[in-house]
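Blinded run. Sample ID left blank on purpose so nobody reads anything into the name before looking at the predicted structure. Input follows.
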Amino acid sequence: MSEQFDYIIVGGGSAGCILANRLSESGDHSVCLLEAGPPDRNPYIHIPAGFIKTLTDPKLNWLYQAEPSDGTGGRSTPVPRGKTLGGSSSINGHIYNRGHRLDFDAWAQRGNLGWGYADVLPYFRRCETRIGEGDDTYRGRSGPLTVADIPMKHALCDAFIAGAGELGIPQNPDYNGAVQEGISYVQRTAHKGRRVSTATAFLNPAKSRSNLTVKTNAQATRILLDAKRAVGVEVSIGGRDGQRIELKANREVIVSGGAINSPQLLQLSGIGDPEHLTSIGIDVLHALPGVGQNLQDHYAPRLSARVKGIETLNERARGLRLLGEIGKYLVGAESIVNLSATMVYGFWHSNPDTRSNDLQFIFTPASFKEGQHGVFDSHPGYTVAAWQHRPESRGHVTATSADPFAPPRIQPNYLDTEGDRRMVVEAIKLARRLMNTNAMQPYNDGESYPGEDVQSDDEMLDAARRWGNTTYHVMGTCKMGPSSDKIAVVDDQLRVYGMEGLRVIDASVMPAMISANLNAAVMMIGEKGSDLVLGHPALEPVVVPELAG
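Blinded prediction complete.
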């Protein structure tokens, strides 16, 4: 006999763990959370600098690869996605960055009622406990998720921030507050030497509830449909050769697999573009052409320079010095083991006349071997990455067969438009200006890559194609939009068009890219989505002052 629940959540990631907590909170509903990966017991998950290990661990990561394209110089680029409780919030660089308020107003202007900045701000606040500076108009102080400042500073970071000031980029104490533009040390979802994932913040406190069932190593292979209603999920316990079971949903199936897995599961279930489904041998049960379309990502060229006259993280990450850093971490002292993916964040504009806040940049007082992610250079160095906030290029995610264990085809189409190609060159130019300020001059010992011989726009564009890469911000493949939008997959209640009892709640519903890393916004979507599922009134909108200028 099949197990039955009121709600089945497919995917125990950034949104799924929040949904599991909120939907089971009252005790009135039975909830089942399915996660294809293992529990989040691996110690590298919880050590801040351990994310470097999780990005290449097949036990914790789907390790997807994007298809080659002209925008990547014919290279296949990585698309890491979390495969454990907490999902990508358990393997990411734990940066907390909400985005610009106008991003969400643009969502609402596209016909998504209730998704403007005033509407979503209360859910950002409900989610977090902000430790540190911040106006409580914008910041939460009592939510499950701890958001703190990075606990370590570095003299090279201070010089970089000072140099940004030479370019007119102001220091901003809270880029998640009233104004995003500016530069500062990062805010992150890590505190007291431990990562704060949605599994630790939301799921762990809820696990003891009798009405919540959590199944790990449980991969959903198909959504069970009765005509145009989702009635359950087919699951393989233990992978390809595992036990196949069926779980029934009395109320709803909620797909929260993320921007890659969610569209693939819909397609495997016969929901998608009829021509594509037929071509891979899947019966069309519900025609919905937008499934898997609208894929977007931030594409970043990373510049590196050699350093003189100051110590970087490179020296501290080798040999006996590294053992010492581990020892300091274990006793709670300042240590590079307690660092995040980067230390400094900035938000600026490519055009001083329009001031459109269209570029983001980061700084790390360390350099890495070209083409070897997370492998430190043998010489001291630093890294600057910069990227376009709102790319125009659109890609797709498509199942390659009816086999649920076959990875999907992922094609982001990086730099597919002239506008994106122009903007990636502007990003490189901004990065170079930041690298060559007066404040940075005492420490510069030559540009490692792309190299000082790369000067023309065409040379910079070619360099970006050869060594640019993902920033791990894939989204948009089950787009939220009005019924008049031909590629919309869900409405503004996150219900799949033409279906009953089926929603998608994760990064895939984002209709357009935001000016940020995605994890904070995905958690907001999980929070707001839980109220939509339960039929709760939306939180009261927060009216904030208009932006100046």
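Unblinding after everyone has recorded impressions. The CA atoms of residues 272 and 287 lie 5 Å apart.
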